[in-house]
Amino acid sequence: MKNVALAAALAASFASSSHAMTTEIDTDGDGLASLSELMVFYPELTAELFREMDTNEDGLIDDEEMAIAVNLGILADPEVDL
């Protein structure tokens, strides 16, 4: 259910957001963040929350999913707070 809510927020939140995956988070340079990459900067992140953020269910967080999480207050803005 939360995946649906996150996905529904995609258009509004990503369209108005400049949140991109930072190189500090994306340590392997693939443009995506794994749970282990995110946990370095967000140690409070749980596997369950990660799965909720992963709206396309590919096991990784892309720029759009990151923007949703930041805009909904799930994660701090990496461009501001890291």
UniProtKB/TrEMBL annotation:
Known InterPro entries for this protein?
Answer: EF-hand-dom_pair (IPR011992), EF_Hand_1_Ca_BS (IPR018247), EF_hand_dom (IPR002048)
Signal sequence span per UniProt? 1-20
EF-hand domain sequence ranges: 41-76
Output the SUPFAM superfamilies linked to this UniProt entry: EF-hand (SSF47473)
A molecular function annotated in GO for this UniProt entry is: calcium ion binding
Ordered alphabetically, the record's keywords are: Signal
Q: What is this protein called?
A: EF hand
